[in-house]
């Protein structure tokens, strides 16, 4: 069994940093060497050398492939290390755990509880501990597991600089809550990080369920609350204070219902789970039929062809499409994914949503693929698991200086090279080295004299 903790400590020097980056990428998802090169922004030769060295020392295993070495899958050698992801909803909690030598396809179904944030931390924290223990035992396969990281998805904004709730802190949380610290104390762990659930839904979809070449992905979570996770240039966009993607508080009806954020007519008050249930109950008031009391029951009755439930869900799709039309005009995304509890009604929601997208957006900006989440109700929990592993990629020694990152780690997802900040930084470093040797960078050589710049002759060796 390999011990991953020692290898995941702070790295000093470029070689150790690159080795750690490849190791983290394999821990998140077994991949080919070409895939690892794309996801880590390292050259194919660098990845090949690292994989060869780590296979020789018994850390990585290269599976045989009919396509030769380049098509071979690289995965971890057997280990007892387990990563955990927790999704805390308003009225539920889901936990997933995966032993890191297992592939994503070998994942377990996870643990579920109907106790969520609305139940209060006094009930929530002990419930999370029981769920984590159960999920880890199942993932450990009879071995004594070592929980190496835990990521948490929450339905509120998280400041990436502090890892705590961003002001204004909306119910059911308050500004004194330090959820990561409380979980570390409850679970006895050192590595606990949290982020907004829609952000982590986008991260899970980009990591496990999309083509590598997609530049811009929007993940929309519709449950009790409504939010969006944004991936642009293959990086997760959180915003200055972690409030990017708060589409649920876009005003749709200026004189509409009061929202818990203090605004009126927010999208959340129009298509959130509570609003959908309320609309159905109002339409069926005085009826002898049983009145739905949850979004799940509304969806079930809609699938049984209840006219009121069908209409309310279709209208929700139309209003969601109106809000997403603004997003399409601004971002022109490749992919829009519907997640959250409304995902179970995707057959009724996505059609009207697409109609509104086309109607209210600039022609050509709404040609994105629109589909439901391929990871189901565990999407956010799987994104939280990835976040926990990425937390090790924040405090390495670069050029003799300790890189002190935000509480929430930066996320490198791979994809087209021109959108990868690591490769851009490497180009800057390479240009700096060239200048130090006396060579002129390409930009200076190619400037036209008509722009007022002196043409610099190319120096020969």
Notes on the protein architecture:
The chain has 461 residues and is α/β, with parallel strands linked by helices. It has 15 helices and 15 strands. Strands 6-5-4-7-8 form a 5-stranded mixed β-sheet. Strands 11-10-9-12-13 form a 5-stranded mixed β-sheet, with helices on both faces. It has a 3-stranded antiparallel β-sheet with strand order 1-3-2. Helix 12 (346-360) links the parallel strand 12 (335-339) and strand 13 (369-372). Helix 10 (295-303) packs across helix 11. The longest helix is centred in the last third of the chain and has 25 residues, at 307-331. The model is unreliable at 397-407, 410-420 and 440-456 (pLDDT under 50).
Pick out its properties:
461 residues; alpha/beta; 5-stranded mixed beta sheet; 15% strand; globular
- Helicity range of the residues? 25-40%
What percent strand? 15-25%
Measured between the Cα atoms of the first and last residue, the distance is: 52 Å
Shape by Cα distribution: globular
Q: Can you list the strand order of the major beta sheet?
A: 6-5-4-7-8
Low-pLDDT runs of 5+ residues are 397-407, 410-420, 440-456
Written as H for each helix and E for each strand, in order along the chain, the element string is: HHEHHEEEEEHEHEHEEEHHHHEHEHEEHH
Structural class: alpha/beta
